[in-house]
Amino acid sequence: MSVIADAPMIEHHRQPLGIGEARPRLSWTLRHADPGWQQRAYRLLIERGGAEQVTEVASAEQILVPWPGEPLTSRESATVRVQVCGEDGTWSEPSEPSTLEAGLLTPQDWRARPVGARSLEHRDSDSRRPSLVRREFDLDGEIASARLYASAHGLYEAEINGTRVGTDTLAPGWTSYTTRLRYYTYDVTELLRPGGNAVGAWLADGWYRGRIGWYEGFRNVFGEDLSFLGQLEVTYTDGRTETIATDRSWRTAPSPILRSGIYDGEDYDARLEQAGWSAPGFDDGAWEQVAVRYRDPATLVAPTAPPVRCTEEVRPVEVLTSPAGNRILDFGQNLAGRVRLRVSGPAGTTVRLRTAEVLQEGELYTRPLRSARSTDHYTLAGRETEEWEPRFTFHGFRYVEVDGWPGDLDADVAAGALAARVLHTDVERTGWFACSDELVSKLHENIVWGMRSNFVDVPTDCPQRDERAGWTGDIQVFGPTASFLFDVSGMLAGWLRDVEADQLPDGTVPWYVPVIPAHRMWTPIRPGAAWGDVATMLPWTLYQRFGDAGVLETQYGSATRWVDLVDRLAGDDHLWDEGFQLGDWLDPAAPPDDPADARTDRYLVATAYFARSSRLMAQTAERLGKTEDAARYRALADAVAEAFRAAYVLPDGRMTSDAVTAYALGLEFDLLTPAQREVAGRRLAELVREAGHRIATGFVGTPLVTDALTSAGELETAYGLLQERECPSWLYQVEQGATTVWERWDSMLPDGTVNPGKMTSFNHYALGAVADWLHRVVAGLAPAEPGYRRIRFAPRPGGGLTHASARHLTPYGEAAIRWELAGGELTVEVTVPVGTEGVLELPGAEPEILGHGQHRRVVA
User: Fold this and answer.
1) Which is catalytic among the residues 101, 157, 467, 714?
2) Residue 318 annotated in active site
3) Is 743 tagged catalytic?
4) Catalytic: which of 266, 668, 714, 743?
5) Comparing C-alpha atoms, which of 766, 157, 735, 739 is closest to residue 396?
6) What are phi and psi of 39, to 5 degrees?
7) Cα separation of 445 and 459, whole Å?
8) Which single residue of 172, 479, 577, 800 has CA 20 to 30 Å from 393?
9) In the predicted model, is pLDDT for residue 808 greater than 80?
10) Pair 390, 269: CB distance under 8 Å
11) For 99-128, what is each residue's pLDDT tens digit?
12) Higher pLDDT residue, 523 or 544?
């Protein structure tokens, strides 16, 4: 047997250092198995404290298997290898090892207290200046290992002995700060030395204390202090340990950052730098003693996902001169990040970098940013060469207006003086798609860029204007696409913990998470369909795509509270037909000043989602072995579906809202009788054709319409919708030069001017949810069982395409499909990973079961 087991994955961590799970689940992929080979048992070889524990389990499971033995203790490390056994009883060689290390698992582990500047004056002013904090210390022996556990009220970057700690940015991210504040763990062994050492941190407002939310002027929404929380733990080679924690012995001073904000950008004066401030021997006599503040250590949580990092640099493709004489860099790609510069010039020279997504009449167009200043300033110190990028902000942009550049901008850009640093949560890319229609392939690329731009610690709506919030409806509809393109399992599971933390006691799920507390003064949190249904639908998506039943268990209480709330609101007639609803948000027929005024009755939408969430609750309860709950929610789902039909389906089978979204909901949420389905499918296709295949759906209908057409036997109509180029359509945006997906179908009007609506983002992912249909139907790659344990290969060629392909790194390994039409023959090549089973469903052929390996089929 030649099977090879890869090094185990620890929960969903890319780097399992400082994890928060005491009993982390383990997964592994298998390679090079002989045809027909199947795992029948596995061994876990776990080394802890110098002793190896071997656990053998008779099971074919290899995804998220339970941790054997005793739970980890705080700071404990372990090395894990796996062996697998086939039906012949032969064991593989042990895998390569994975080393994991627990973080601080109990509140009692924390000695650190938040420390920062003593003064809070000017806290409501735009000119609030962030601070630095530092401390020196001596180490009296050889160092075996050292860990820094760090967090902040605000954002931080730590330094030890003059060297930056880690590669993350915007740490500790944005969570429901009152109940959950992340801390990160860094291996800093190589940064320390016997004798004198120093540790320090930069601080800035970030989401915690900065201006946040779309009601201009809100600051300090989570707290007033700006504080660093750091615990440096050193282990000497002789076994002794020493802890250097933030306390009143630390010192503080203003930093060279004059001001910093998520929306407004960063102003930095390099003349105010204090060389060596984070190194030993620095004279901090003029610095103040810090103020010590409070943080309940029970609220400190380890991350479940990678941090935000720079994942790519993009160079300008052109340097423009606007009609007004402004110099503008075109990076050729709308993205989320910030600009890094290298510059030489006289001390006191200030370079201004102002960002925007689009130009209008050749000038930078900032109206869509609303009140976000989105501008950075760098004042030179006068050194020979200076390199700088903002630390604590990010922008959504393609264009950057450069003012005050002290040199030949054209020549300096050509030499690499300015680059865009792309920022997003450093999740692993797992999905790819391509096809013979170059515009459709470009649409898919735009969807990927839109996702990257909006997965900046939380799944946001947009990265550019004064919003950037974790809108629950957006990720509810985009979750399946996101789960194919990137491994978002840990990130979204962690975000769902914030959903529950911010959920109201009555079960109401906020429209966006984390909630911005100050907004409650203006708009109370009210229940709303599609957005609140993230509590049921996103956990189910993560279970289906990653095979993680644990997220169903963890979120079960949150999900049941949501459905039970809607049940109470709907009353005995099971119709949710009262209260505020966003409905089919941003239907292209809605007026600019009322994006919720859609063609589909918003209460039809609400009741449809009530039925869908009730059905998913029944399936979730059944999967978790909660049989009584499963029966109750199944009966509820049946009752709501019956009420839906009675209220919204006319005797002739048409719907009271004779609109595309209404029929798509009825079909895809399985709310119609067989006879009604036939009528709905025909009418849906008629409406699409009557509209010239132009889009007639908003955030709710768009993810469903192509699937609804496909299931109704109207595949070519679905392709017509996909490939339409007139506004509104997906490819209209592409032909208009879009490099991401827009918020509105017509964010840019056909005459080249920007839509006058108040919400006109050029970087939203919600309408890109169609990519899930591209993967599953156009290319034909989909999970047939949770976690891709069984894989459905079912391409549906159409639309004049001559080839399409998809590739996905499933929890079991790579699955892939490529099909080609030539000479009347369909050739299909698929890859099935070890540990899974494929089901090949080709047009006109009987389904075929495939074992692991590569397969090729040709049908006429």
Assistant:
1) 467
2) no
3) yes
4) 743
5) 739
6) -70, 130
7) 18
8) 479
9) yes
10) no
11) 999 999 999 999 999 999 987 544 444 458
12) 544
